Amino acid sequence: MNEVTGVVVWITGPRNYPIARIPLPEALVADLPSLLDGARELCPQADFRAAVRAIWRLGSAALGRNRQKGVPLVPADLG
Fold first, then answer.
1. Can you give the pTM of this predicted structure?
2. Structural domain of residue 54, as residue ranges?
3. What's the number of domains the chain is made of?
4. CA within 20 to 30 Å of 20's CA: 8, 41, 44, 76, which one?
């Protein structure tokens, strides 16, 4: 996969009506190609969509654990 310079996330409501458009900065998504390559090494039959879901879930799980333990986000976590 080539270099990623940006990702735009659309948040939609129950009827697929757009609620918010969030452009993610390059600093946040620059490691996406290496993360995707790593996920596909672990599961070669996974397509990009499945690999992104896995990466998202793993990150969400870590955030959930931090919330349970009361670990705050520090400025370095925010970008």
1. 0.66
2. 31-70
3. 1
4. 76
In a domain, 48, yes or no: yes
Place of tokens 């919330």: 67
Alpha helices in the chain (DSSP H): 26-29, 32-42, 48-69
* Measured distance CA(45)–CA(28) in Å, rounded: 26
56: in domain: yes
Give a yes or no: residue 37 inside a domain.
yes
For residue 21, the cross-strand partners are 10
Q: Residue 11 in contact with residue 23, Cβ under 8 Å?
A: no
Q: Specify the DSSP class assigned to residue 36.
A: H
Tell me, yes or no, whether 45 lies in a domain: yes
Maximum distance among all Cα pairs of the chain, rounded to whole angstroms:
37
